[in-house]
Design goal:
CATH topology of the largest domain: Enolase-like, domain 1
Shape: globular
Helix content: 25-40%
CATH class of the largest domain: Alpha Beta
Largest sheet: 5 strands, antiparallel
Length: about 300
Amino acid sequence: MRRLAALTYYEPITLSAAIGLLAEQGEGTYPFAGGTDLLVQMKRGSLRPTALVNLKRIDGLNRIEGRRDQGVSIGPLTSISAIERSSFIRSRFPVLAEAAALVGSPALRNLGTVGGNIGRASPASDMVPSLIVLRAHVRIEGPSGAREIPIDKIFIEPGRTILLRGDLITSIVLPEASSHSGAAYLKLGRRQGMDCALVGVAASLTLAGKEQEVEEARIALSAVAPFPLRARRAEGVLRSGPLNAKRVQEAAAVAMEECSPITDMRASASYRKDMVRVLASRAISRAWAMAKRGEEGP
């Protein structure tokens, strides 16, 4: 760790002021919220900002609000721990609360924000796979106006998203769940908690009124591709006929083939691939069981 270099620090109180500062100050200016990743990079010297724009004084960016269409809007400055503890999230989108509980330590969850977790574009994100299977959209505002994008379309490469200079995530929107849906997220780490995922798998199923007929299926993987990956071919397997144990295993095997993990000091690529198959099978089966019970899901 090294001493931080001098920089300019801003605390705007409106969204438009923050966007203006980020656009005008240009390269080297970064938004600041929880700082759980940004400050670590700064101390290591891998990132050397010339200015920080603190977003914490902007009203309304840390709220969880129900929508008229019965979905939910989550502000980007909402802490991971607030999502973990929210009774609304736990009752309507339980997989998201469960994923939040698996993020790092309690101290990190108290500081870290959902917007930062998305904007960081980490391949091993715990939050993003669940948001993908919940059909989340990210609302972005910037110098060119506002737009809303499916969350699985926002990532380009590790550490990089489609956000342009001056752009900010202003909300994460989840549509309402079907009563015949279920979702699950499973994470493999080297320790029970406080560890980055070796493999993460989220799965959701919506049944078409019958226990074995799949109306919609979503599978998302983390830590096995350059960014959180939607396993579309595996989803197609689940939709291709009556759901049974054999089809679940086929989908899990296809998900394994869709990913492209690396070998590093934490695990080999072949081990990660095999664990995708194992976790995908378990996550799909759990989502199926929840959907059959009529529990809330994606």
